[in-house]
Amino acid sequence: MIEKGKISAFQMAIIMNPTIFATALLLVPAITARLAKQDLWLSPIWGSISGILAVCIASKLNKLYPEQTIIQYSEHILGKIAGKIVGLTFILYFLHLNGMVIREYGEFVVGTFLNNTPMYIVMGAMLLVCSLAVYGGIESIGRSSQILVPVVSLLFVLMTLLLIKDLDPNNLLPIMEDGLKPSIMGSIVPSGWFSEFIAIAFFLPFLKDSEKAMKWGIISVISVTALLVLTNVSTYMLLGKLTIKETYPVMVAVRYISIADFLEHLEAIVMAIWVSGTFIKISLFYYITVLGLAQLLRLSDYRPIVLPIGFLLLVIAIWTTPNLQNLAHFLGTSGAFYLLTFQLGIPFVLLCLALLRKKFQQKKDEKH
Amino acid sequence: MNNTVFKFKKILLFSFFCLLVPLLTGCWDRDELNDLAFITAAGIDKKTESTIELTVAVYIPKAAGGGGEMGGSGGSSGEGQQVLVRSAEGITLADALSQLQQRFPRKLFWGHTEVFVIDEELAKDKDIRRIVDFIMRHPRTRERSHIFISKQKAKDLFSLKPPLERDLAEVLVELAESKIGVDITMKDLAQMLIGDSEAAVLPYIETLKPQTGQDKKQTIATIVGTAVFKKGKMIGSIDESATRGLLWLRNEIQLAVVTVKPKNSEGHVSMNLLRAESKLIPKIENGNWKITLKSETEDDIVQNETTLDTRNTKTIQMLEQELEQDINEKVKPILDQVQKEMNADIFGFAEAFHRAYPDAWKKYKNNWDDIFPTIEVRLDTTAKIRRPGIVTEPGAFPEQEVREE
């Protein structure tokens, strides 16, 4: 096996938490609020269903092929050529997805803090750090998220607590003004985000305690849901309909904190949450791409392709969209379906075929 | 052989890290503290029909430091000006800002701007929603900055030298936060402008007359009322006492000394408000839209001019009723003025109905301007007097003059 490191199921859960939450934190409240209005806090709950589905599909497939990643077993399931094609599309998909994530990161940093810095410097610096993490393998990503995630989550909850005095619960009323439809419509985009949980299909084979994978996967989904509900509730209670108008509502909300004229201007903390969260997210997808490609091409080691792929990611991040509006539009509309197709659709088809194949195999065995 | 490769790797790694170091400073956005001009307050005035004038008050760090060092020795030397006021004309706020930047050796920095003042003329003439856009869109301006409407030109206000505070921005922030009038931040204003009723309020400020004999500039601007906006345009203003009523309706009242004159007694009784809570309860009955303002307040007696015995529970009950009546009388005139004349829903009735009757709201929201003036407002006020202060009977009246009721 290329990857010799092992992580625990708990580490997997803690890697996945910022993978979904970090980017969702900044962009999703505004996108969801546009459709769901004051019911936006319900949307992550509906969205989490796709996360749970993704975890289930990934761990079911892992039960059938415990030693292999999705790239490897798709060859088993579909045959050599079709399997390779599916594997390649997966790698291209994750390249593109990660390119968008890096771009989101760059857009936020450049748009709100470093207005004059060229974006490729911001994104390139991040990619360099991530490439070091990828070099270290899954274990180093797991360990760094073990350090970062508790700090980030704590800071985030602290921010929400500091906001309490400015919150107006009336903003959330009337609940379900137009029934469930707006909140379900609003959940389509978060669903796409949640389906990124399929990423665990790439490192389930490296778990020390794979029997706990399902349990921790679902705990991770629930923790992300809880954090997103908290974000949406507090943002909407503070900003009301203004949530729709802001590009980064959470940033604005945190900037609004003022305790005793003293504890103010805390947006640097949002930045810290964002940078460390996206670091995990980018590293993870980066790792998946590199590992997947190495497995697809049957390389003996994935390390030599880390930097070239990193460079490719930077280029994709720059090419993927001409501006932020385009990116946000894509993510808010067709992007969700694009994400869902690759992250739920294809894996689901793979699982069905794998199960059929197994049945077929059993029948064949009985005949003999 | 192996050793040299190892060494080479080490050197490569070292030079790589050296290359990374300059990136850590964020070169392109490096802003040295002494290259920035901190805007403490910005004023926007109408200049001509098509242009506005932006005035900024910039903090001068040198003078502030010097004043402290002088201590008692200099006397008048501590009065060195602490803010620099400059203005520029432009078609839009951003345009004026770029003009203004040319007149500053330092980069104008919006991150500490706590006050925006818009003059009345501009507010009545132009849509303030256009100005608000800049403040919301700029990455450095703060959503918590306070907004004011000024009777005078903002440019004139900023040249005032407040005797007690560092500059006018500080004065205005303190005044807004003491809640004597409405306290509106950028976020609140934006929320009101896109709210169900599209009506908004802003504190209305005016220069306080300087003390006789003092320099004309030695004064401040104070909140004298509330400016009322509808669809982004100022349609009028209400005075200080009506603002008290408005605060009751908006559940924003925090400071109040209420003075009542009890029946059949000479003199007045003053009470200090400790807590107040008000709630709007909307109701639609047979097509009639009604709203009840349910307010509760707790007060302490702070002065008793009369000979009434404040130990007596009956006296307290009587005073409570007087207090309730007084609050009702404060709220009624504002309803007449704003609800009937201006037809601007600045009390949040629209939101209250929207929340309680979403279906009816959907049907009638386009007719809100016709419905709003006809809404019947009922007042349900409960006042509680908690403590008589630290004397019981009227403090300085002889025993035999004190009456039970």
Can you give keywords for this protein?
heterodimer, A: Amino acid/polyamine transporter I, 0% strand, globular, B: alpha/beta, GMP Synthetase, Chain A, domain 3, 9-stranded mixed beta sheet, 29% strand
Chart the SSEs and their pairings:
The complex is a heterodimer of chains A (368) and B (405).
Chain A: H1 9-36, H2 43-64, H3 70-78, H4 80-112, H5 119-136, H6 138-163, H7 181-186, H8 188-194, H9 213-239, H10 242-245, H11 249-255, H12 267-296, H13 306-319, H14 324-332, H15 334-367
Chain B: H1 2-24, E1 36-46, E2 52-59, H2 61-70, E3 83-90, H3 93-101, E4 107-109, E5 115-119, H4 120-125, H5 128-137, E6 146-150, H6 154-158, H7 168-177, H8 186-193, E7 199-207, E8 221-230, E9 233-239, H9 240-249, E10 257-260, E11 269-285, E12 288-304, H10 313-342, H11 349-356, H12 358-364, H13 368-371, E13 376-387
Parallel strand pairs in B: 1-4, 1-5, 5-6, 6-7, 12-13
Antiparallel strand pairs in B: 1-2, 2-3, 7-8, 8-9, 10-11, 11-12
Helix pairs in contact in B: 5-8, 9-10, 11-12
The CATH C-level name of chain A is: Mainly Alpha
CATH topology of chain A: Amino acid/polyamine transporter I
User: Number of helix segments of chain A?
Assistant: 15
Structural class of chain A: mainly alpha
Can you put this structure into words, describing what you see?
The complex is a heterodimer of chains A (368) and B (405). Chain A is built from 15 helices and no strands. Chain A has one domain: Amino acid/polyamine transporter I, CATH 1.20.1740. Chain A is mainly α and 368 residues long. In chain B, 35% of the residues lie in helices and 29% in strands. Chain B contains 13 helices and 13 strands. By secondary structure, chain B is of the alpha/beta class.
